[in-house]
Amino acid sequence: MELAIQTLLKENGHIISSSVTNMPDLTPTAQISPETYLGSARMQYYFPGGSLSNGTQTFSLADNLTQNSFSYGGTWTINSENAVAGNKAVLNYNFSADKVYIILRPGSSTTNTVKIYLDGKVIDSSVDGADVHVGTIMVDLDRLYNLVDLHGKTENHVLKLEFQTPGIQAYTFTFG
Asked: 159 — phi, psi (to 5°)?
């Protein structure tokens, strides 16, 4: 692929070095959890039932999540493209992956934090993602946050996000 790109660039007059950089293929080879949307328009993996309608609701976390499914706890406002954390908002996800990411947008508070748990314990520094500090992420910008990094091991775990600040918007989980 790189050679084809270099050829096309050369045809358009760009000066390109003739060396090709060999990089390892980091594509996951094990089955990993699918991209998961938290808004109603594309929600598929809510447990139980697959999806929810829009509006503010109070939820109880499901105890027996199936693999690749999530559950809400506490108060959430479900919109077409996102879910907005309310009072005592928590989210559990039973995933299989090496890395876990989520797209979040801060609420109107000056401090927007989420506590991260893995298998019922506050996530520790040996497996926390780049955006986790002492078991917590600070949601400061509308962006992708790295929550879990199992350092090349695709494993099944239950992730729990405890939203310390109401108003944080959650959009999508992705996995690597």
From this structure: -100, 135
Q: How far is the first Cα of the chain from the last one, in angstroms, to the nearest whole number?
A: 22
CA dihedral for 103, 32, 70, 37, sign (positive or negative): positive
Element (H, E) at 96: strand 90-97
Contact 73, 91 (CB under 8 A): yes
The pTM for the full model equals: 0.84
Predicted confidence (pLDDT) per residue in 11-31, tens digit = 888 887 766 667 676 665 679
Give the whole-angstrom CA distance, residue 142 versus residue 86: 18
**Beta-carbon contacts of residue 76 (< 8 Å; ≥ 6 apart):** 56, 57, 59, 83, 84, 85, 86, 89
Dihedral sign for Cα 152, 158, 164, 169, please: positive
Instruction: Tell me the domains of the chain and their CATH numbers.
Output: 31-175 (2.60.120.260)
